[in-house]
Predict the 3D structure of the following.
Amino acid sequence: MVPALTALAQTAARPKPRLGVVYVPHGAVMNNWTPAVDGKGFEFTPILQPLAGFRKHLNVLSGLDHAPAAQMPGDPAGGHGRITGAFLTGVHAKPTEGADFEAGTSMDQIAAARLGQETQLASLEVGIGLPEFGGA
């Protein structure tokens, strides 16, 4: 532990790298999400406007397709569990009736394995939902 009044304690710390990922399960109004101009000079759309203060730290990705989230023969009806499972893994989640999802390691956990070496918590996952949605 570094005593609060020492020179080391008064030195500005190097910012820790962070990764934030947001999943919008019911989609977004794309013309209120997608900037009209690509690159650094984009204008913030209504949905993105609250993030304007973070412009230099922000990448907005659009025009992506996620084929592994599509329903395949034998998949149960309703796609929330399948789509959520494919979101950060890039693979088609195994159809299931319970909590035995199989989809591979997600990109946020791959990032956490590296970035988490420099933070108190390697990863923090937060979600809101009912257990019957997705076998949780």
Q: What stands out?
A: The radius of gyration is 19 Å. Residues 21-64 form one domain. Helices lie at 7-10, 30-33, 80-87, 107-115.
